[in-house]
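Dear colleague,

Thank you for sharing your sequence with our group. We've completed the structure prediction you requested, and as agreed, I am returning the results in plain text so they can be pasted directly into your records. Please verify that the sequence below matches your submission; if there's any discrepancy, let me know and we will rerun it promptly.
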Amino acid sequence: MVKASKDRRPNSAFRLTRSDLEAVEAGLQSDQTHGEIAATLDLTRPRVSNLARLLALPRPVLDAVRRGALAPKTAEALLPLRSEALILEAFRHVTAHGLSAAKARERVKASGKGPANADTAALERAMSEALGAPVTIESSGKGFVITIRAADLDCVDGVVDRLGIEL
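Please find the predicted structure tokens below.
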């Protein structure tokens, strides 16, 4: 089993290690819940959920987080964007200008490409956590479109399992 780092100081800055990210990824691939992964790795459940969301980012963004070139909270600020192209565009801007997480969130909010309101954002977060994959909700002229973004087929299998669908 992959073990996470033991840097668990309360109130310390979110310090992502490669082993944390790899351990969460391994746990998700073995169909463990976020709570089970958190208990195994001695992490909080919200931290596991945040790490799991990061795994769905486009490869260049995730690689920058793994290298330490982009702070996890800054990368997380890009998740509400509606497409990989928008995330990559914002990523290039954030890294080129050295924006903080707060400034990245402001940019996403100002772009109008994020969640429509706080209720929608809260629902997206809750659904993302329940399904183990990022979820976006968009209003269309005839209702709503719910998108589940999966990093790979293992993630799709995990979503299907969590929905209780038997194939």
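Summary note from our side: The longest strand covers residues 135-140.

Kind regards,
the structure core
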